[in-house]
Amino acid sequence: MKIRYRLLYALPLLAVLILDVLFSTMITGRIEVDEFGQSAPSPLDGYPALFIAGCVPLSILLYKYLRGIARYVFWCALVGIAFLMAESYLHYDVLAVYPHVFQKIMVLFTLPAMYGMYSIIGRITLADLIGMIWVALVLNLSLFNPEALSMGAFVNHERGLVAASVYLLVLPLLFHFNTYLQTRKPLHLVLFFVASVAILFFQHRTVWVVSVVSLAINVVLLLGAARQHLSFKTLLPLLGIPAVLLFLTLTTLAVSNPKVLAKISENIADIENHDKQGTGGWRAEQARSYWPFIVDNPIAGMRFKGFELPIQFYDPDQPTVVVFPDGHGHFLHSFYIDALFYLGIIGLILLSIPQLYALLQLLKSPSMDPETLTWCIFIGTSLVYGYSYSLPPYFYGLAGLGFVRIKTLANLASTPLVENQASTSVISSSQSAPAVPLSV
Predict the structure, then answer these.
(1) In this structure, what are the phi and psi dihedrals at residue 230, rounded to the nearest 5 degrees?
(2) Which of 88, 90, 158, 272 has the largest CB neighbor count within 10 A?
(3) Helix spans in 39-142 (H)
(4) Percent helix / strand / coil, the chain, rounded to 5
(5) Distance (Å, whole) CA 217 – CA 362
(6) Contacts of 346 (CB under 8 A, 6+ apart)
(7) Alpha-carbon distances of 388 from 205, 327, 338, 345, 421, rounded to whole Å
(8) Of the candidates 202, 196, 199, 208, which has an alpha carbon nearest to the alpha carbon of residue 239?
(9) Do 330 and 306 touch, CB atoms closer than 8 A?
(10) Are 391 and 208 contacting, i.e. CB atoms less than 8 angstroms apart?
(11) Which positions ≥6 away from 189 have C-beta within 8 Å?
C-alpha cells in the first residue's frame, strides 16, 4: 500500500520527466527519425506545450505555497509574459500572436508549479528521482534501444539516447558520488561508475564536459569546506579502481578493436576544436548566422520580429537543404544564443535566475548534505550544458523540486535535536533524514 501511495506522490514528477524521450518512449514506443533529423509524428507531440501552459494557472493556484526563489521566479515570469502580451496586442491586435515566443518565458512557470506541488505533497526525494531515472534507462535500452549498447554503435557514432536524456544521468553521477563519500557503501560507488561509463559511452561531448565540471566543483567544495579532510582510504576506490579498469580496458581495446580508441580520440579532438569540427562546428556556424541580429537588439532581443525573420542558417555541408522551414520559429542549439536572439540580455538574466541562485547557495554554504549539494551543482552547471544546447524542457520543473528539497533539508538541519526527535514519527513518512554535512 505504501508503494502505491508513493507512486501517486511521484505522478507530478513523472509529468515533468515525460517531457524527455527517455521516459516518453515508454508511452509512445520508439519514434523513427529521418535523414534530416525530423521525428515521425508522436501521440505526445503537443504534450510539452500543453504541460507548460497548464503550469501557469497551477502556479497561480499554488501561489501561497511559494517561498523564496520560487516566488521570485513566478513574478519575474509573470511580468515578462505581461510585457509580451502588451506588445502583441499593440502591434498585432491579439494577446498572444506567436506562442513559440511566449513559451520561451512560460517554461519558467514549471518551476513554481512543481515547487508549490511538492511543498504540499512532500515525500518525494532525490533518491526517488534517481531510482526513476535508473529504471527508465534500463527499460528504454532493453526494450527500445538494445542496439545502442553495441560497440558498432559506438564506433559509428550512433548514439542511442539524445543529449537531454544523457544529461539526466548527471544527477545519479553526482548523487552516488556524494552519498558514497558520506556512507562508504559500495553500491553507491558501483552506481557512480555505471553512470560515468554510460555518460562516456553515449558520446554526447557536452555532457562529458558538464560531468567533469560538476565533479570538479564538487571536489573543490569538499576540499575547501571546514572540517573536510578527504582521506586516502576514501579516495582510493574512487581513483584507483577506475585507473586500473581504464588501463585494462584501453589495453584490451588496443588489441581487439583499435577503432574504439580512434573514436575516443576523435571525440576529444572535437571538444578541443569545438568551433571548427564535429557538431560543435555546426553550432558555431549557426551562432555566427544569428549573431548580427543579437548585436542589433541586445537589450530585449527581437521577440516577435525574430519569429517573423526568415531562417538565416543552412547546413554548410548541404547548402541547398532547408534545415528549418520558415514560419515555425528558429530552433537555436544554444541556450545563450536562443535567449539573446529572442529576449536579449534581459531574457538571458531572467532564464538564468535559478542557476545563479543555486551557485550562490554553493558559495554561501559549501558544506552541505549530499542531496543539497547534488541539486545545487546540477542546477548551476546547466549553464555549461546551455553552451551547446537549449535547456531541456524538464529542467525548470526539476529545479522546482530541487529547491523544495533544499529548503526542506535546510529546515530540518536547523531544527533543534530534541524537537527533531519528537517529530520523527511525522517527518519520517514524508521527508528524508535531516541534512548532515558530508563527512569524508
Answers:
(1) -70, 110
(2) 88
(3) 47-61, 69-92, 99-106, 110-121, 126-139
(4) 70, 0, 30
(5) 10
(6) 299, 300, 301
(7) 10, 24, 11, 18, 47
(8) 196
(9) yes
(10) no
(11) 176, 180, 237, 238, 241
At how many degrees (to 10) do helices 353-364 and 370-380 cross?
Answer: 140
Tens of pLDDT along the chain (440 residues) come to 555 667 788 999 999 999 999 999 888 887 665 444 456 677 888 899 999 999 999 999 999 999 999 999 999 999 999 999 999 999 999 999 999 999 999 999 999 999 999 999 988 999 999 999 999 999 998 988 887 776 655 555 566 788 999 999 999 999 999 998 888 888 998 899 889 888 988 888 899 999 999 999 998 888 766 444 555 555 556 655 555 555 445 455 444 555 555 555 555 555 545 454 456 677 888 888 899 999 999 999 999 999 998 888 766 566 555 566 667 778 888 999 999 999 999 999 999 999 999 999 998 876 678 899 999 999 999 999 999 999 999 999 999 999 999 999 988 887 755 444 444 433 343 444 434 444 33
CB 181 within 8 A of CB 235: no
Looking up cell 502580451, which residue turns up? 85
Q: Of 324, 295, 293, 298, which is closest to residue 311 (Cα–Cα)?
A: 324
Residue listed under C-alpha cell 533543534 = 416
User: What's at 23, amino acid-wise?
Assistant: F
- Which of 168, 131, 166 minimizes the C-alpha distance to 148? 166
Locate cell 550544458: which residue? Answer: 385
Amino acid (1-letter code) at residue 108: L
Environment class of 214 (CB within 10 Å of its CB; exposed 0-12, middle 13-18, buried 19+): buried
Residue 66 makes CB contacts below 8 A (sequence gap 6+) with: 59, 74, 112, 115, 116, 119
Contact 32, 146 (CB under 8 A): no
Q: What are phi and psi of 122, to 5 degrees?
A: 65, -155
Q: Enumerate the β-bridge partners of residue 33.
A: 39
The amino acid occupying position 234 is: T
Q: Is the pTM higher than 0.70?
A: yes
One-character DSSP codes across 210-261: HHHHHHHHHHHHHHHSTT----HHHHHHHHHHHHHHHHHHHHHHHHH-HHHH
